[in-house]
Write a structure and sequence with these properties.
Largest sheet: 6 strands, mixed
Shape: globular
Strand content: 25-35%
Number of strands: 21
Low-confidence stretches: 1-9, 79-89, 91-97, 415-439
Distance between the termini: 43 Å
Structural class: alpha+beta
Helix content: 10-25%
Radius of gyration: 25 Å
Mean pLDDT: 84
Order of helices and strands: EHEHEEEEEHHEHHHEEEEEEEEHEEEEEH
Amino acid sequence: MLSERKSRFDLNDEGNLQLLLCTGNMGNAKPTVESMEAWIPSNGECSAVNALDNVPSMPHTYFDVIAIGMQEATWKEGNAVSFKSNEFLTEEDVFLSLDNQNLARFRGIISTILGEYYSELHAETRGQMRFLLWARNGVIDFIHDIKISGANTGVGNVLANKGGIVTSFNFNQTRISFLSAHLAAHEGETYYKTRCENIQKILEDSTNMFDLSSDNVEYIDVTVSSHHMFVMGDLNFRTLFHPDKGEKNDTTHEDNVERALNLINEQKYLHLYYYDELTRGLERGDLLFNFNTLPCNFPPTFKVERKEGFVYKKQRVPSYTDRILFKSSDGLGKYLKPLAYEPCVDFVTSDHKPIRAAFSIRSNKDIDPVHILGKHTVTISSMKCHNLRSSDINGKSDPYLMFLFESTDLITENKSIMDALYSSISRIIPSFLLRSDRRSWLQTHYIPKTLDPDWGEDTKLSFSLENCEIQPHQMVFVIAVDYDMIGSDDWLGIAAFNMKEMFTFANECEENKTQYIKRSLTW
């Protein structure tokens, strides 16, 4: 019962959420209590975590929310499982029994470490992956609408030895999400591409995570609908020593291992991090568009001996496989502050060293809104896209743009030709025969057979705001869609704009004001 929980205190006065993320590959071995204590801070105390160099100290005494992701988190307990002699059991029954015992051990250890002032909000299992969400009792009443999604990306996208768990919740008008993942292993370009595809598959299955008051939420994945999102896990990206300009790429595996070990011994971690495969992928836009990762200014977490310290196995090039990334919606990045990022060197029961990161999030409820006085009309024109993906068999698409406005009362001044045509047709055709995704949102006409559509200056979409309030979390979602005469239209990409940031000038501007906005589409 909620009333029976022991609460040390309520949310801190500033309204900031102090968040700790812990992720680790357990190496299919039973963890010792001492290893878990080296990873999960006792009583949730911030002082157990080392602050980043640019952070003077951890700002608060206790973490409010602790998110824990684990991979390869199953093991056999000898004769710990017992059944009745006449009971018929399948192999799956035995696995699930062992699996439940493993999870129960984790939950028991974490409960003991965090103590009586914390409660478990949720525990999710997918194959050998675990995701556990704990919160300080004093902040639980501020957290609601916990939702779970995910996908398997093992063989045939069926097996759950690889994949991800997506968890989201609302905190004081702030949508926060986590993806805890275990991606494809091994070195090489083929496996790199598979990891990128793994992430895409998981995110494609993670729409409808939040109520956005829209008929088109199927277009909006969790990376776009979240105000702040975190990706964590054994992402398996490797150290890739690419040759300098003019050099041949003829090094052996042994050469690469030796080169990495030399940099580690010299504590040139940022030099080694320069060759990190994930960082290069983020820079090239191969995956997780607009996500950030803090530099790994510490020894690689894989592949190590199961003992104290960093002793590397030479079967693999030492790599930063265990990672934590983050992303904020347009206009909200300044309210997310990284506080810490470090490995847990004293975790001794795995061939990975777990890592953890701390963040402070200012909730949207504690950010002042913009008050719109009088009537203001916004006209959107000169719309264009470049290098859209192909959706049709001819190698082209028939794109149009659709604008979804979140939780704001708008007055549409004019709509596109498509909407006007829809309104005319709806007078003579029964509504159930019409496409529900071509109804009321502002949208352009479609341009056939192109990947670089340009609607020109003559295509204009307008809406008005009058005597209203725009909250910091309210977004405009611009979706590029491929038109199909029959069947459902195909999603080509999406970008989000912060409405408050767009209208901060509204009450100061006496005459017309023009803004030029350029964004990359996520797809």
